[in-house]
Automatic annotation (TrEMBL):
It comes from Pedobacter cryotolerans. Residues 67-356 form the PRISE-like Rossmann-fold domain. It holds the Pfam family PRISE. This is SDR family oxidoreductase.
Amino acid sequence: MKNRIALVIGASGISGSNLAEKLIAEGWNTYGLSRHPKHDIKDLKPIAADLLDKKGLGFALSDIKPTHVFITTWTRMDTEADNVRVNAAMIRNLVDVLSVKKSAEHIALVTGLKHYLGPFEAYAQEGFLPQTPLKENQPRLKMENFYYAQEDELFKGAARDGYTWSVHRPHTLIGKAVGNAMNMGTTLAVYASICKELGSKFVWPGSAAQWNGISDVTDAGILAEQLIWASSNKVAANQAFNIVNGDVFRWSSLWFHLAAYFGVEAVGYEEKIKPLDVQMPKYADLWKEMATKYGLIESRLDQLSSAWHTDLDLGRPIEVLTDMSKSRKLGFTAYRDTQEVFTELFDELKKSRLIP
């Protein structure tokens, strides 16, 4: 591993931070690039840079020649047209800067199930709903999607410079992170903590289809394992892979297990969707009080809760199940128990004093 130099783009997020920790544990020389790097991962070499500033990016990476690059970040804009423009530019700038170095052997890109379900503006809408289980060979939807734009820039760079690539499509990442835009696990932990503080019920906020249907999610750790596996095995070169824990569940069962962890009363689907994005902002002041009361390290509710994205996932009108056959056949056999993934996350959030 001494000759392998990893560059993790977005090392402060859920997927990037978990990946950086695993790379370091396996002996990789690892750099972490973010606009505002954190310094909480031992032996990670932080780099401050903005992917939209090509000149500044080139300067920040001037002395670094990564062999393996992992792109785990994106920027949300107001419209999908702007998402496409901005996120494509981020990938294009990065591969252009790396092109000069001629050091990259493999570049991996993390996207997600919006590849199949559509962008934010048309997410899981009638008329665009795919068949499930979702498989990697399903055609792209006939609409703008910044994931497609990211992929296309990656493919162009690979054709020009000769590196191999992989694309990874997790479903609802579960892991520890603060200030992350897609953070269901922490959002539900904060919601349950508020319910416990108020003595109120832990009410299901999503759709009937999600409540009753079969689902799966992705532990950030298993995503990290697949990223490293794909970057290190020729059989995985130049392919896209779904990545989930490997088990399936129904929210109508798991919801009660989550409630039991926090000692609150669970309530299932009741006639209509009850968005967390409407409820959670009301508790901003309460969370500040709870932070003081319990000695929490983050008093800003909006830094912990990404209610809008949790609503997006839990409010879908169909069940969502992800096929993992492709990477399984090629030798990737990692597995996680989803109930344990949530429990371990909640334990870590408590240990880190992010929830009471």
